[in-house]
Amino acid sequence: MRRVLFILLLTISLLIPSQADALSRAFNDREVITYQLYFNWKFVWIKAGTATMTTQPSTYKGKNVFRTSLVTQTSRKIDRFFVMRDTITSFCDLDLSPLYYRKGAREGKRYYVDEVWYTNSGNKTLATMRHLAADGEVTAEKHTYDRNVSDMINSFMRIRSMDVSSWKKGHSETVYIAGGSKLTTARLVFNGRKTVKGDDNKKYHCLVISYNEKENGKWKEIVKFYVTDDYRHIPIRLDLNLRFGTAKAFVTSIK
Questions:
Q1: Whole-number average pLDDT of the chain
Q2: DSSP class of residue 233?
């Protein structure tokens, strides 16, 4: 289930100013999206836990910003096999430029913290990354990138601001995601449109997009996700290909 957090992020490097303005209007008030997580265990789908994402206007170092948090936890039944308690917090400018990211994760018996501080200048991004390992060792690195770089949550905000009106099936975008110790290069592929049903018993017309990473020199689909085909692009369903099986996440409420 460790990939569950990594799913709600999914990034895009193309940012349309008019869409960002629309996103700002969408978050004038607090927004809360909740999900039910399922895991496939011996051909049976069982409830594995929940995830809650909250976005709201806030301040960071005296600036007006968006603050987004994602909290994911496994159910008591799953805790007997694998405990997951993850909390992610991200701050970004009103134009969605990332400012700060923190992930505190308890996964099994391991607890670690990833942090990223951003300084943006033109097309360059200075990212200061800090990783607190489970054994208490702390590593810190600074990297300058000649491209737009996002973290997990900021990537989620960016994907909700993209303009896909010109996309055709098979269209792909290269994306870059920063963590506490490395930069991951990935690819988004547009797979068309489909109507899906959430755990709130509502049907949604969605865009279908897959998230891919390279493995042994070949692109491998990690997640296929379904976001509403409107200006908000809310993730409704997520299909995850995990190393130890498959999992799904379905929206339960949008407030």
A1: 81
A2: -
Give per-residue pLDDT as tens, 48-64.
Answer: 899 998 988 999 999 99
Residue 34 three-state SS: strand
d(CA 47, CA 106): 19
| Residue 2: CB atoms within 10 Å | 16
Q: Which residues contact 70 (CB under 8 A, 6 or more apart)?
A: 5, 8, 51, 52, 53, 86, 87, 88, 152, 153
CA 80 to chain centre: 26
Query: For residues 32 and 126, what is the distance between their CA atoms, to the nearest angstrom?
Result: 31
Rg (alpha carbons) of the chain, rounded to whole number: 18
Ranges assigned E (strand) in the chain: 31-41, 44-60, 63-74, 84-93, 98-107, 110-121, 124-132, 138-145, 172-178, 183-197, 203-215, 218-228, 235-242, 245-254
* Cβ count within 10 A of residue 140: 12
170, 142 contact by CB (below 8 A): no
Please give the model's pTM, rounded to 2 decimal places.
0.79
Q: Provide the 8-state DSSP code for 239.
A: E
pLDDT, tens digit, for every residue of 210-240?
A: 888 877 888 888 888 898 988 778 889 988 8
User: For residue range 179-189, what is the model confidence (pLDDT) as tens digits?
Assistant: 666 778 888 88
- Is 240 strand, coil or helix? strand
Residue 232 and residue 26 in contact, taking contact as beta carbons nearer than 8 Å: yes
